[in-house]
Amino acid sequence: MAHTVESRITTPASELRERLDKAERQLPSLDTATVAGFLSNLDRMDVLFDQLAADNVDVRSEAGRWDDLQRQIARNAGRIVKLANGAGGYAALRTQNPPATAPWWQLDAMIAARRRRQTRSLLITLAVVAVLLFGAGWAYQTWLAPDAETLLLVDSLSSAEQRAAEQDWSGGMAAVENALQTLPDNAELLIWAAVFAERLGDEPRAQAYAEQAQAQLAGDEASYQIQLGSTRFRVGDIDGAVSAAEAALRLAPEEPQVYFLLGNVAEARGDIRGAIDAFARAGDLADPDNPQLSVVSKMRYGMLLQQLQTMPESALPDTGSTELPAGADVPADATPTP
What we know:
- The structure is a single chain.
- The protein is an all-alpha fold.
- The protein has 17 helices and no strands.
């Protein structure tokens, strides 16, 4: 027995297979106590692959398992990042495990980049759908021959989005405040200014802009909270977005845009079931009064449902039903947006 154990633990190839076995078993049931060791185990396997390749050892079978493990890690990136946050955060784990340059040490950056791409894609989709639903004559006058103020607003909002993506709060504030000199009563610009001020830690200025925006919305507090939450979400303030969404929900519990915002927040937090339920609710409430929002909500629902089906059941919280909402079309080959 002693001889068997010794040969098993001292051979690099056998060590690699044991570590692969451990990682494959561990991934579905990872928790905050084991996530750091799991990532370190990946580092060790990476070294072993290089060592065995240099020794001309045939590890094609193990390489196939390794590639499959990498794909599973990518699919579970949101959950792994959430667990890492509970263990001190990815930045701290990288510091504790230098050089931490492999892809599994950069999952937080990958998730952030994916979220920015999804947000931009959603905004583009909403814009296209809105244009198609407007009358041809009005669309021609508005989009092909806009006045100077419209051009300024579009350019300023685009600049605000870009600065938010770059986390350039000062630059974003400057762009918005410049536009407010010409468009002082624009609620959307005022909300952007309030959110940029929050990011800069300037609470008095944030409060002042927020009050101006509320005044321009003529007391429609629910609409204000929805726009505030959506803008906070765009700058990465997830907790702030939740706070605004909950305030809007209390004011307008049947407003579909509230659930659309809650769906975005849940997805950003890795709560796929919660996001599915929220998008389903948004799609049902929006139909038929807001067909654009209904279509987009059901699209998001379908993509997330496909993603849910590829994830292990034990990795997801039980947050309720994932029954398909009326009218949602989920093709068999649909895949989630990266």
